[in-house]
Amino acid sequence: MSYSDYLELDKILNAQHPISTAHDETLFIIQHQTSELWMKLAIHELNAACRLVAADDLQPAFKVLSRVSRILEQLNLAWDVLRTMTPSEYTQFRGSLGQSSGLQSWQYRMIEFLVGNKNAAVIHHHAHDHAVMDRLEAARQAPSIYDLTILLLSRRGFQVDRAVIERDVSVSHVSNDSVSAAWSKIYREPARFWELYELAEKLVDLEDYFRRWRFNHVTTVERVIGFKRGTGGTSGVSYLRKMLDVVLFPELWQVRTAL
Question: Within 13 Å, how many C-alpha atoms sit on residue 211's CB side?
Fold first, then answer.
């Protein structure tokens, strides 16, 4: 087996098919294709992290969560490359995209569900693909990495409200005082609760990079198309800015003020 055979490079390197004559369309295609590959790996790793936290196997979970943060860093760097494309260059092929949009990336939705942003309304964007809808719905109905972390806190003896433990995990977690109290105790005595303290910081790292990814997305879109409507029908930058207000692990950010 050769290097090319093992990596199936013929399939990868021949998967770019610009539909216009614009020079920058190749950049646009490759940036999004490589991002989807990184997202595939992020999903693979987040699923592993969920299994490890559920099994109280935290040391390997730390390695996996660190890897997810590095993947998000790679996704952030991809925006730097795309931002070399000017508005004039993008307009040369934007009309050829039709209604296709990053909004339709099911892998991005999967990552959102795995980290706890359970917005059921977004699944309808994939109504044309029942297999994808089924996968997304299964992820929405399953506990997120933060849901599993809260269950871990309870197993480790912290008093977490029963309503949180037994809540419907198909919707996003809302900040809870008992969870805040648990994290506050952990952060006040890190040496005593070192594993949980380290898990908390791995999750904060993950959300930190995730926020940067969203911010870079907004900035790139505004830089390239201004406040035009998105190709998928959204309000464009205005829609993306709303996503910056989403907090995945609220108590982990609130504890910083409480200490």
Answer: 13
